[in-house]
Amino acid sequence: MKASQFFISTLKEAPADAEVVSHKLMMRAGLIKRLGAGIYNYMPMGLRVIRKVENIIREEMNRAGAVELLMPVVQPAELWQETGRFEKMGPELLRVKDRHERDFIIQPTSEEVITDIARQELRSYRSLPKNFYHIQTKFRDERRPRFGLMRGREFTMKDAYSFDRDEASAGKSYEQMYAAYQRIFERLGLTYRAVAADTGAIGGDRSHEFQVIADTGEDALIYCPNSDYAANIELAEALPLITTRGAATKPLTKTPTPGKSTCEDVAALLGVPLQTTVKSLVLATDEKNEAGDVLKSTVWLLLVRGDHQLNEVKAGKVPGLKDGYRFATVAEIEDHFGCKPGYLGPIGLKKPVKIVADRTVANMSDFICGANEIDFHITGVNWGRDLPEPDVVADIRNVVEGDPSPDGKGTLAIQRGIEVGHVFFLGTKYSKAMNATYLDETGKPQLMQMGCYGIGVTRIVGAAIEQGHDERGIIWPDALAPFRVVICPIGYDRSAEVQTAADQLHDQLQAQGVDVMLDNRGERPGAMFADWELIGVPHRVVISDRGLKEGKVEYQGRRDAQATSVGVGEIGAFLTSKLA
Amino acid sequence: MKASQFFISTLKEAPADAEVVSHKLMMRAGLIKRLGAGIYNYMPMGLRVIRKVENIIREEMNRAGAVELLMPVVQPAELWQETGRFEKMGPELLRVKDRHERDFIIQPTSEEVITDIARQELRSYRSLPKNFYHIQTKFRDERRPRFGLMRGREFTMKDAYSFDRDEASAGKSYEQMYAAYQRIFERLGLTYRAVAADTGAIGGDRSHEFQVIADTGEDALIYCPNSDYAANIELAEALPLITTRGAATKPLTKTPTPGKSTCEDVAALLGVPLQTTVKSLVLATDEKNEAGDVLKSTVWLLLVRGDHQLNEVKAGKVPGLKDGYRFATVAEIEDHFGCKPGYLGPIGLKKPVKIVADRTVANMSDFICGANEIDFHITGVNWGRDLPEPDVVADIRNVVEGDPSPDGKGTLAIQRGIEVGHVFFLGTKYSKAMNATYLDETGKPQLMQMGCYGIGVTRIVGAAIEQGHDERGIIWPDALAPFRVVICPIGYDRSAEVQTAADQLHDQLQAQGVDVMLDNRGERPGAMFADWELIGVPHRVVISDRGLKEGKVEYQGRRDAQATSVGVGEIGAFLTSKLA
User: Fold this and answer.
1) Where does the Aminoacyl-transfer RNA synthetases class-II family profile domain lie (chains A, B) (predicted)?
2) Which of A37, A64, A514, B32 could cross-link to B40 by cystine, CB 3.0-4.6 Å?
3) What is the CATH number of domain B253-394?
4) Confidence band for A17, pLDDT divided at 50, 70 and 90
5) Cross-chain Cβ contact B33/A117 below 8 Å
6) Is the pLDDT of residue B264 over 80?
7) Do B96 and A106 touch (CB under 8 A)?
8) From the list A6, A69, A120, which residue is nearest B42 (CB)?
């Protein structure tokens, strides 16, 4: 393709609202153009990248036996009312009324619609397993859309849904999708990691996120460099850092710590390691009657070591907290601890409190915690001697770098990632709500076992840029680049020789099926090179009169520090080997 | 592809709400599945057809120099307020509020958004001409969605928008799109006709509809079989059928016509040709002040020959009616004619009425019209003698079959069509409203000249079926068929020979890039054949043990009355020649 047949629009400066590098570079390279908050036009250059992502996904989904269809953007509310999501989902679900005042939604995903199709179309065990997918426009009315395509409101997603007769078969469907996702991200040329993720209320262990590795990623990925253990921080298991509780050696002492309410400040004041302190977090649960009135509330004290962070997802798995918890109110805290937050601890409670100790805290001795009195902590605290054993011992903290790997194969490392895919075993969550059954061999209706599998198509484009860029612009993997090769002729309109050589190379590459761009805009060399470095085309060939006089053209890869001189006669073969 | 990797779902009966054959067959063949009124899931079989349409459109748009981008489905109302369409458009524009109560619309087209892009991106004459297009989901909240994909609410449309520096250049852009549309419909394999269409308020003569010819089409297409004259009925010019007015030969006579208020009844009663009668239609126009109060109303009497129909679009072009008209109220009619509707005419008016005669009526003599008295008509009416010449003589009627062609090359014929494409010169309608200017060579801002070019992607699928079907099902053109060849093995699971032969032919065709389906579902032959005739695959090969024993397979084209026996060794070459 020649630039004159296309549309290229680059900017010197990114707009002020672009916070992250991918957003800045996508705007500067003219891949997207803002239409409203979290809503973007995909400009010609950006659409080419998106289509490449879509095509790779489509090929691998088809190869894995999934069948493509297309479900509508505007969906009647009835199906969403069947599963209760019409009411349960927050304002991120865009609701709309048609001219007859009937309720509709703009689809954020399509579980309801595909389950409706399945319950009508997959009537017999002979129709199963089946995996349907579509690549479609989605809308989520994010409260604070930002980061360009990374957290937009309108975006493109591939969502697949598998239907199986039993859990064993559903497990196979899950594995097939997992393998397909691996092939997809390999082919996209991205550095990624699949990590086990929490399954929430559905339970089981079949949920994995596919994360593109990038320092700017929002998610913390936990992995063991010596094994294949990998999980996101919500799920990654934190083993006790102290295997056996030491004997008490210090007396229980109330110590003044005026104005020092954090573990860091207390440790510094007392000149002890932060690892000897314990942090108190107060939660509450409510027992309700059917009308929703609170009959009784229970207050919970969760204890993690001073250098650790509470993991709220893990806390939600503690028996007693599973059905939902909230943070306690200041009134509840004062009522139970006789003290305002900041100096709380498990000793000297006014009213009964359930105590949950992190596995490490449960094995600590001679530790320091709040005294339930403003400006005081207690040192030399020991379980059993100074207070009863905790009601519950559980893993309730975030893993930290250097923690032992749960598989015993070394210590854990942490890297940052951007979630771009998710495979999830749904079980009968939707089939039960919508009565999606098939008839088994005996003619008996059975609930279908489902899985859902998403890939954020447009998000991948942002993530690829977060992973691949430098101060000059985007560095695409070959598979994603809007064009793989750009031919930059110097003086295309002035020199017949340059024009002929450029056209010939362009036509030759195009005939080979290479995505090639010939920049015939007539820009000056500096501006032209800067544009293509910004846009991030992997391979550049510069053709000039001066070079041609010596029978040479110049090749430079996007990551190369300098150009390579190549004979005019050899450039075709040279590129073919580079592109292979 | 093998059926086991795909999804095939046919129905014996079409659902009751399917009124037209394309809707019935699309439902029965499993191409679409209803989700709500006018909202359909595109099932795997249907999506394949849609993608083929999209790909042909995309290739020809690109070849014509248009550049693809993608504009959002959910669009902020602001731009639509700039052009006034947010307020002006009726309830077919789906309006939605986001979580912050800001107004958005679900796009029915994208003039506003593309003009917004153009005014920011196409700043100089050097950027022009430019033609952008996208293929995107559209929504129009039809009052009465019906006919499946033919008049759905959610549908897929290709819409292109050209930007030019002046009218001459815009004319070239228009011609390029017209030519591209011809190539598109040729390649789709559809019988179509491009007809000139009315340009409404924008004026000029550059508007053409692309109509797929089908007896069931909603539109009447007028054409001259001896020339290239073609227009839709709104535009097609009706010449006077009487070139010179004859002399008066009959006396003016009030004639009783009790209970006969239509021209047909009057002609029958009096035993005269319908062509001697004149039909009266009463319109009104209002003069308003700035506040919108009606200052003065004018009543208009429009006269067409008894066998003709008023053309409301043409009426709207009559001087004095151009700025909008309405049908007169009964009170206005009684006030001006002294009579209720049914027996109206131009003689003996109570108050002044503007009289508009169709070209043919203006040349009639000795004609019959209402007497402005219940149960009476007047015969022997002559212009000049019995009443003044009409205030206006104009073409205000629909053309009928056999009318002289406006180009003088014969008589007009009429056929029915389904509008699937439209090319339209917009001029500065949107660029003016949104101040989309470019800087010319002198640095002076100039309004861009625009054109818009739509193709109803999903509508084409319905129209193709209206054009191509028989009692057994759909008959696709090769270019649109979900699969071009279906291999139907008899006893695929029972006979190793059949399986081997079927697999080999499948693999061979697939390697050649042919869209081939091997039906390995294990259906009985009758049901299997019926399915593929319903789905409409153009080429079928039946492989059976009996045939193989004689070294033969059976080929049958979808339109063929019977099968052809072909040697196993020759079937590949045989199909290749059929598919060429």
Assistant:
1) 33-477
2) B32
3) 3.90.960.10
4) confident
5) yes
6) yes
7) yes
8) A69
B513 conformational bin, left if phi > 0, alpha if psi -120 to 50, beta if neither:
left
Given a contact cutoff of 8 angstroms between Cβ atoms, the answer to whether B207 and B191 are in contact is no
Rounded CA separation A93/A107 (Å): 8
**Residue A506: enclosing H or E segment and its boundaries?**
helix A496-511
Pairwise CB contact (< 8 Å): A47 & B70:
yes
Question: DSSP string covering B222-281, please?
Answer: EE-TTSS-EEETTT-----S-SSPPPP-S--EEEE-TT--SHHHHHHHHT--GGGBEEEE
User: Any idea which of A174-178, B151-155, B202-206, B233-237 has the lowest mean pLDDT?
Assistant: B202-206
pLDDT tens digits for A466-479?
A: 999 999 999 999 99
B68/A106 CB distance under 8 A: no
Query: In angstroms, what is the C-alpha Rg of chain A?
Result: 30
- A386, pLDDT greater than 80: yes
* pTM > 0.95: yes or no: no
Looking at residue B204, what is its pLDDT? 66
Q: CATH fold of A485-579, please?
A: Rossmann fold (3.40.50)
Domain A10-75+107-216+417-465 architecture: 2-Layer Sandwich (3.30)
- Of A276, A271, A270, A272, which Cα lies nearest the Cα of A258? A270
For the segment B422-434, the average pLDDT, to the nearest whole number, is 96
Residue A85 is predicted with a pLDDT of 94
Half-sphere exposure of B410 (CA within 13 A, CB side): 12
CA distances for A59 relative to A70, A180, B350, angstroms: 16, 10, 77
Listed in order, the ranges of chain A carrying CATH 3.90.960.10 are 253-394
The verdict on B50 touching A (C-beta cutoff 8 Å) is yes
> What integer pLDDT is reported at residue B202 of this predicted model?
67
Give the mean model confidence (pLDDT) for residues B396-422: 96
The more confidently predicted of residues B311 and A323 is B311
Averaged pLDDT score across all residues of chain A: 95
For residue B446, what are the β-bridge partners?
B438
Residue A329: strand, helix, or coil = coil
CB contact under 8 Å between B35 and A71, yes or no, is yes
Check whether B201 has a pLDDT greater than 70.
no
Mean pLDDT calculated for residue range A197-219: 86
Residue ranges of B 82-141 with Cβ closer than 8 A to chain A = 91-92, 94-96, 98-99, 104, 106, 113, 116-117, 120-121, 130, 132, 137, 139, 141
Q: Which residue of B has its CA nearest to A152?
A: B72
Helical spans, DSSP H, in B414-495: 429-433, 457-467
Q: Which two tokens stand for residue B482?
A: 């979900």
Question: Distance (Å) from the C-alpha of residue B12 to the closest C-alpha of chain A?
Answer: 14
Asked if the Cβ–Cβ distance from B7 to A67 is below 8 Å, we say yes
- A507: phi > 0 → left, psi -120 to 50 → alpha, else beta; which? alpha
A289 touches chain B (CB under 8 A): no
Please, what is the angle between helix A167-188 and helix A44-63, to 10°?
Answer: 140
pLDDT band at B17 (very low <50, low <70, confident <90, very high): confident
**So what CATH class is B3-236+414-465?**
alpha beta
Please compute the mean of the pLDDT values over residues B551-563 and round it to a whole number: 96
- Interval B1-27 mean pLDDT: 94
Q: For residue B375, what pLDDT is reported?
A: 96
